[in-house]
Specification:
With about 400 residues, this protein is of the alpha/beta class. Helices cover about 45% and strands about 20% of the residues. The protein has 15 helices and 16 strands. The protein binds arginine.
Length: about 400
């Protein structure tokens, strides 16, 4: 009999899938649940087995997620349409584990719970096929054509315990929380307070906090007085920044499937870390490095958003990013206050900023040489304008 490895979250869609694959598709199911946020692995494993899964694999991959995925996003200031990629960056990790366990458990199919309208189906399937082109990937939610009510009825009929996880469609991991669906879909509606779980409303925030972030080779390693692993540092910063009303992104987004969607994100640590990272890079990289980095950052983000994590071009972009990030070292002190992140001070051994050259108080910079420099520099513009003078006159 065919065997399907199912990426299982424990929610309604994937629970219905465990039964559906057995009953309607006549295939055996092995579930795989990965913790990248705060999933209760024991509970989810029990549920999968109770629904008839042959095996239920569970695994905590939080540190792997931080050290191999989020780290690269920090290097690249990973923003798509100004939002720190949080859902998109977890998909290649899930795809990689799914392929690994499918091979190990002799599954010739992998199933995931994405719909046919979003980006995640693309990310999963491109990544899985890039890693093993012989595996068949299926997305039952895309194929079965049930609406939510029909799904709930199917669940009731098959004794699937329904944990109603709220009215929105939420995807969550340590780097961010993405919320869509329900009342958010109608952009004329006001956003309701129940959307937010990580970020405090501004009316309830206090007098602010000053934080000191230390970066080593592009990665934050110290928050205030203590060194932390990246996972812990992110979790702590999510609390501090979220308590100060920082990290809400409410925007229109252009999906890979060609449609615009209205999405709300809570990403307090991500926006704070990326802001601090950008501040240090503006101090430690020169203009040419920054120009290229901006371009590479953009390519990195678009590629990750579009599910191309395993395309070979990513190796080249990541090589550039890790090379420039060697110089992104130092401390940034920020005030977090009522949704704002304000720079207090910066300090870096790799600083290219030179007080002696910039200050008007001393003569370390030969101002007379500027005259000769301008004489030459102006030529391109002046010569072209002179050549076109006749035309300009006619236009006037
Ligand atoms: N649109 C976002 C992205 O493609 C997030 C989608 C997350 N899913 C959700 N159910 N909120 O990265």
């Amino acid at each position: 009999m065919d065997k399907v490895l199912l990426l299982y979250s424990g929610g309604l869609d994937t629970s219905v899938m465990v039964k559906w694959i057995q009953n309607e598709m006549k295939k055996d199911v092995v579930t795989l649940t990965l913790n990248i946020g705060n999933s209760n692995l024991d509970e989810i494993k029990k549920k999968a087995l109770s629904l008839g899964a042959m095996d239920a694999i569970v695994m905590d991959v939080k540190n792997e997620f931080s050290n191999n995925y989020i780290k690269k996003e920090i290097y690249s200031d990973g923003l798509y349409e100004d939002y720190p990629l949080s859902t998109a960056i977890a998909r290649p990790l899930m795809a990689e584990k799914a392929v690994y366990f499918a091979e190990k458990y002799n599954c010739n199919f992998i199933a995931h719970g994405s719909t046919g309208k979003g980006n995640d189906q693309v990310r999963f399937e491109v990544s899985m096929k890039a890693l093993n082109d012989n595996i068949n990937v299926i997305a039952p939610v895309r194929d079965w054509n049930m609406n939510r009510l029909e799904e709930i009825n199917y669940a009731r009929k098959n004794n699937i315990k329904i944990s109603m996880n709220g009215k929105y469609s939420v995807d969550e991991n340590i780097w961010g929380r993405s919320v869509e669906g329900s009342s958010i879909e109608n952009i004329n509606n006001n956003i309701e307070d129940d959307v937010y779980e990580w970020v405090k409303p501004l009316e309830e925030t206090g007098n602010g906090d000053i934080i000191d972030l230390e970066f080593k080779n592009g990665i934050p390693v110290k928050l205030n007085d203590d060194y932390y692993d990246l996972t812990i540092l992110i979790e702590k910063l999510n609390k501090i920044a979220g308590n100060n009303g920082i990290g809400i992104i409410n925007h229109m987004e252009d999906r890979l499937t060609g449609i615009k969607s209205h999405e709300i994100y809570e990403v307090p640590a991500a926006v704070t870390i990326i802001k601090a990272h950008k501040i240090i890079e503006s101090l430690t990289l020169n203009k040419y490095e920054l120009d290229i980095k901006n371009y590479m950052d953009n390519q990195w983000s678009n590629s990750v958003y579009n599910g191309l994590w395993y395309d070979p071009v990513m190796d080249h972009i990541n090589a550039f990013e890790s090379s420039v990030n060697k110089y992104i070292n130092g401390n940034v002190k920020l005030k977090l206050y009522k949704g704002n992140i304000m720079l207090k001070s910066i300090n870096s051994d790799n600083s290219v900023y030179d007080y002696d050259k910039i200050s008007y108080d001393n003569s370390n910079f030969d101002q007379n040489s500027s005259k000769g420099f301008i004489d030459i520099f102006k030529n391109n513009t002046v010569y072209t304008n002179n050549a076109r003078k006749e035309k300009i006159k006619i236009l006037q």
